[in-house]
């Protein structure tokens, strides 16, 4: 009886972990919302918004050749999962004065999937 209980708990916890796992393929689908303004991958160029290669660990306002607002340059943000998740919920609330006119991604699982997709690209645009 005890081993059946332990097995049931183990299976339940494994299922919870799987449900919370980030899904790169779903993140790629979510990135379609970003493509009008941003590019990523080999050969990505700045558009209305900066290219997003090497975002993980990059300072806000630091993509080469992109004309950022002072608000972005002075935000003090270094992009990582936590800062991205907070930002992407409501970009204008996180960085008042940004020119990013995106309403945000409110669903945390979608934002996490998007981050999983973005962080796989190095500064050179190649997948890590």
Task: Describe the model.
It contains 6 helices and no strands. By secondary structure, the protein is mostly helical. Helix content is 44%, strand content 0%. It has a single domain (23-119), classed as Cytochrome Bc1 Complex, Chain D, domain 2, CATH 1.10.760. The longest helix has 19 residues, at 2-20.
Question: What's the topology here?
Answer:
Elements: H1 2-20, H2 24-31, H3 70-73, H4 81-89, H5 91-94, H6 108-119
Helix pairs in contact: 2-6, 4-6
What is the H-and-E element order?
HHHHHH
Number of helices: 6
Overall pLDDT confidence: 89
Intertermini distance: 46 Å
CATH architecture grouping? Orthogonal Bundle
Beta strand count: 0
Main sheet: strands, sense, barrel? none
* CATH topology annotation: Cytochrome Bc1 Complex, Chain D, domain 2
Overall geometry: globular
Query: How many separate structural domains?
Result: 1
The CATH homologous superfamily is termed Cytochrome c-like domain
In short:
The protein has six helices and no strands. It has helices at residues 2-20, 24-31, 70-73, 81-89, 91-94, 108-119. The model is unreliable at 4-19 (pLDDT under 50).
Features:
128 residues, mainly alpha, Cytochrome Bc1 Complex, Chain D, domain 2
């Amino acid at each position: 009886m005890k081993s059946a209980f332990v097995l049931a708990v183990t299976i339940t916890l494994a299922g919870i972990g799987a449900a919370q796992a980030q899904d790169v393929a779903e993140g790629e689908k979510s990135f379609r919302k970003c493509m009008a303004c941003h590019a990523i991958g080999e050969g990505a160029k700045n558009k209305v918004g900066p290219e997003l290669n090497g975002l993980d660990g990059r300072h806000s306002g630091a993509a080469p050749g992109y004309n950022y607002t002072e608000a972005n340059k002075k935000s003090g943000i270094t992009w990582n999962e936590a800062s991205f998740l907070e930002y992407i919920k409501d970009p204008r609330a996180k960085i008042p004065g940004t020119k990013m006119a995106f309403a945000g991604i409110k669903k945390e699982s979608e934002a996490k999937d998007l981050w999983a997709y973005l962080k796989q690209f190095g500064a050179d645009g190649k997948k890590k």
